[in-house]
Design goal:
binds pyridoxal-5'-phosphate; 3-stranded antiparallel β-sheet; about 375 residues; 12 strands
Length: about 375
Amino acid sequence: MIPLLDLTAQYQSIKNEVDGAVQEVLCSGKFILGPNVLAFEQETAGYLGVRYAVGVASGTDALIIALRSVGVEPGDEVIVPAYSFFATAGAVLTVGAKPVFVDIDPQTYLISEGVIESKINSRTKAILPVHLYGQSADMDPILSLAEKYDLKVIEDNAQAFGAEYANRKTGGLGSVGCLSFFPTKNLGAYGDGGMVVTNDSGVAEQARMLRTHGWKKKYHPEMLGYNSRLDELQAAILRVKLRHVDGWNQRRREIAAQFTARLKEAGVRTPVEVQGRKHVYHLYIIRVAKRDQAQAILREAGIASEIYYPLPLHLALPCKELGYHVGDLPIAELASQETLALPLYPEMTAGQIDTIIRTVSGLEL
Ligand SMILES: *Cc1c(COP(=O)(O)O)cnc(C)c1O
């Protein structure tokens, strides 16, 4: 079976470096907010071109802490694309705010920036674009709207570590950026992890307090916070992997380019890469009308495939009280019925790439 992703192959390629880093932490006896978390925060900030980085326990927590750090409060509205991983909307609900969904672009699956303005009112506090599948949302119009209406921009960069928009790394473009180091992400830990990144010292200070019980001075909480830290062991592993991530992303782009060139010829609806943006192909998504049938044929040929995501956010059960119905956001709804992820990871062999291309080219779409 060609898996969607092979984390063991990647570990084998960096085993010595990772094992050494883990050993060092184990011998140091420092497990919470130790030197590796600090160093990884600085290295990631440098990589992304931002001033501050705050390691937290997961990408979901990064979203929750980022929302609160920029001042989103219960009752506020946050504009969110209708098509993403559920945590994007879940985080907004968790802080007591209301996600206001907008539809997506049918080519890129990214937030359709043209309809955002019509959703802005006096309760709107922030816009939350998602750099879905590894490609940046169109940030310039979003940043202009934010300036015009005095809104915060929170980037969900969980799927796009290393992606670029106009030669600048995503995550550092808005008021605050959220990273996930879930094992399958382009920069993945061996467990959960996340990070809040920003150029605003006030936002960074809030995020640091929120991740440690709401205090600056130990045992003197100033607000209700969390216990949400990036683990020292994970930080040590991530420091090793950060040194490789550009090479891995480059390899993802090369494989995606091969897929697209040959699948396009066969009439497959392949991903659309927008000029001026560097796509890092967290996922390689094709579009198929007869998706069940396509998945069955792929399975038969020994090729894994997966649906990201079978339900748009506005139709998810926890959003029920918001009152959305089928048909409200038709492009997101259609995407949820037709998108299909093919295997794509840096360690794929030429033979695997070829098998995928030949099989997918033969699908009746
Ligand atoms: C993975 C992901 C998250 C959540 O990250 P976790 O580390 O799993 O909590 C949030 N948003 C998007 C778009 C994601 O893909």
